[in-house]
Every structure is written in C-alpha cells, then in structure tokens.
Structure to design on (359 residues):
C-alpha cells in the first residue's frame, strides 16, 4: 500500500529577502495507485510540495507519510520515490541505456545482465528501444523525456513524482505524451503525483486534482466537481479557458439581482452584521447569444475572435465586460446589439469578501 499523506505540512524559506511561507498547512491524501495532479499558478508552492515529498527540501512543520512510514526526516534515497524534472536532467555523455541503468547500478544488488533486462523491458514499454544507444544530443525532446521517464520508472519506485515534465515539448507532442503517461500509469499502477501550472492538462490527466494558491490548498476534488462546484472564486476563475466572467454586486436587503432580474435571496449579513457583497460567476460557454434565458440583457458586441470551431465574443453588458464562447454560427459584428442570456442554474455565487462559494 503506497498511500501518500501530508498532514499540516508547511514550508518556510528564510533568505536575504526575508521569510516566505511557500506552503501553508497542507493536508492531502493520494490513494494507493492513484494519479493525482497538483495544479496552481506560478509560485503557489507546487514544486516545493513535490520536493518535500521527494526529500529534496526539508519540511518546516507537519508530517509526510508514504505507505505506513513517516518520511519527512528520511534521506531521499530511503523514501523509494523517483522524480522526473522539467529539464530531463540526463547525463549528456551517457547513452539512453546508460542513463536508464545508472540508478540501478548506483543502488547495487543487480548484475549487469539483470540491469540490461530491466532497461530493455522499460524501453519497450516506452517505445524507445531504437534510441537506447544514442546520447541525449542525438535525441529529440520527446525522446529525451521518455528516457528520463524510463530512468525514473526502471527503479520501480513506490511513488512517482513528476514536475511539469511536458512543458518543454511542443503542443502536439505534449498531448501525445499525456496519453502515454496515462497508459504507463495504467500498466504499472504506481502512485503518481504530477505537478503542472496548466489547468487544461490537470483536468484531462487525472481523476483527482488539488488546486493550490498562495501555498494553500483551495480544493481537492475530481476535475468535474472542481469545475462545476468550485469551492471558491479562485477555483472558479482558475479552471476553464476563457476564464469565468465575474460581476460584483451589493446585496439589496436579501435579494440578489443580475441583469435587472431577481436571482433569489441569500442571508446578506456577515458576522459583523454588515451587508455583504456578492460576486456572480458566469462561464463563457453558459452565456447564450441571440436567445432569451432565465436572465437576459441587451449587450453590445465589442470584439469577435474567430477560433475555427467557434467564436469568442467580447460583450459589454450593463457596463461589465463579458466573454462568451459561441458556436461558429453565431458571429455578430463589433458594434451590434445582441441579447445575452443565461439560466439561473448556471450562475455561480461567491462571497465577495471571503471568496467562498455561497450555495
Ligand atoms: P512555478 O510553477 O513557477 O515553478 P511553484 O508553484 O512550483 O511555481 P514554488 O517553486 O514551490 O512554486 O515556490 C513557492 C514560493 O516559494 C515562491 O514564492 C518562491 O519564490 C519561493 N521559493 C521557492 N524556492 C525557494 C528557495 N529556495 N528560497 C526562497 N524562496 C523560495
């Protein structure tokens, strides 16, 4: 059983610039054999979290368990984890085969023939048998990435850690490698933690995503749950492209209105008795142009961006800018007045002060 559990994990960096809490009270469980993705914007603490699990960074507070062992004070080699980095970190003078066998050789306990057999087996899985005698400078980016993956997996680690492993590949190769990684994960069943800043990659790759911001966990859920039931405004805006439109409004009594229509009533007083403001969230694909819905308004078209399979429309609705993802058949011109509508069920509501979702 190789479950990874983080309990109250924090990381504080102290350097000449001062003190920085890069990871703050992180609680997370990655189940045995699960493929989990940690996602968040640059600087949110993803790499630091992964490096603490690998043992490449000390833990300031909290505990990390791999299986039934508490590991935060163990050396990296004692944790039986393997990490793949963004820049591959291959040895330039060694062939693909030597790069892959290096860790095995270093660990000892295997004859040369056994090592060769392991490497060949893994190379077959990764479909790189034909480049095993090449050195990294003779390989393409995708091939280097496969050798780096092979070098990590060949040691049969309990946990496989990947830090933005596909970011140096072009878009086509990246999507190919995404599927490849999922296939490898299915074949080997190793508990895998994958870090990316790319929300699309996170949503497509795993059945479980953990969204971080500012060192704090915002939500851990299935991609579908995080997308359709964001825990807070940050998650709502972070997932989805183009981003969720947001409109801040004050609450009149207990009534919230959008586009001049009442949306419902909420408890409008905070703990201090003040009326609180709300933020409406409207996803670009939920706004319909040219038809009335539960809530509708007249909008003026400011810009139209052709996307091939559809159009992005930039609208001004009651002095608020909105982006709409429209089908190819809906292609108004800048300056046109159109009807924009949305169903009540598709309107997200957040507390403007705390950012928390209001149900
Ligand atoms: P990116 O996607 O840009 O790699 P990230 O989400 O992986 O970002 P981290 O690299 O974990 O974020 O960094 C989190 C915060 O900790 C950042 O503010 C960063 O500047 C800071 N940080 C990271 N490493 C160190 C270090 N060795 N010393 C001081 N501060 C650091």
């Amino acid at each position: 059983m190789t479950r990874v559990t983080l309990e109250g994990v924090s990381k504080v960096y102290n350097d000449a610039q001062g003190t920085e809490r890069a990871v703050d009270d992180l609680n997370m469980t990655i189940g045995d054999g699960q493929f989990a993705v940690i996602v968040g914007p640059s600087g949110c603490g993803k790499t630091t979290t992964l490096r603490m699990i690998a043992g490449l960074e000390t833990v300031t507070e909290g505990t990390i368990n791999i299986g039934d062992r508490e590991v935060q004070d163990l050396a990296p080699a004692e944790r039986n984890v393997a990490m793949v980095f963004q820049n591959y970190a291959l040895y330039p003078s060694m062939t693909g085969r030597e790069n892959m066998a290096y860790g095995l050789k270093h660990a000892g306990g295997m004859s040369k023939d056994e090592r060769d057999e392991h490497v060949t087996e893994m190379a077959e899985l990764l479909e790189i048998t034909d480049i095993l005698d090449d050195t990294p400078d003779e390989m393409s980016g995708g091939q280097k990435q496969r050798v780096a993956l092979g070098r990590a997996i060949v040691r049969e680690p309990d946990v496989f850690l990947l830090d933005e492993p596909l970011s140096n590949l072009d878009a086509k190769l990246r999507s190919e490698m995404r599927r490849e990684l999922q296939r490898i994960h299915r074949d080997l069943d190793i508990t895998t933690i994958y870090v990316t800043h790319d929300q699309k990659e996170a949503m497509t790759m795993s059945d479980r995503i953990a969204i971080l911001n500012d060192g704090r966990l915002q939500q851990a859920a299935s991609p579908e749950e995080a997308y359709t039931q964001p825990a807070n405004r940050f998650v709502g805006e972070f997932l989805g492209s183009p981003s969720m439109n947001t409109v801040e409004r004050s609450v009149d009594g207990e009534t919230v209105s959008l586009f001049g229509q009442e949306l419902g009533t909420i408890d409008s007083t905070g703990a201090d008795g003040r009326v609180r403001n709300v933020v409406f969230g409207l996803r670009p694909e939920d706004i319909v142009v040219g038809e009335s819905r539960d809530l509708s308004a007249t909008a003026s078209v400011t810009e139209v961006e052709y996307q091939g399979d559809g159009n992005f429309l930039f609208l001004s609705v009651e002095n608020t800018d909105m982006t709409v993802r429209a089908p190819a058949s809906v292609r108004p011109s800048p300056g046109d007045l159109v009807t924009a509508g949305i169903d009540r069920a598709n309107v997200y509501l957040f507390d403007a002060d705390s950012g928390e979702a209001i149900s």
Remarks:
- Residues 13, 15, 20, 22, 40, 42-48, 197 surround adenosine-5'-triphosphate (CB under 6 Å).
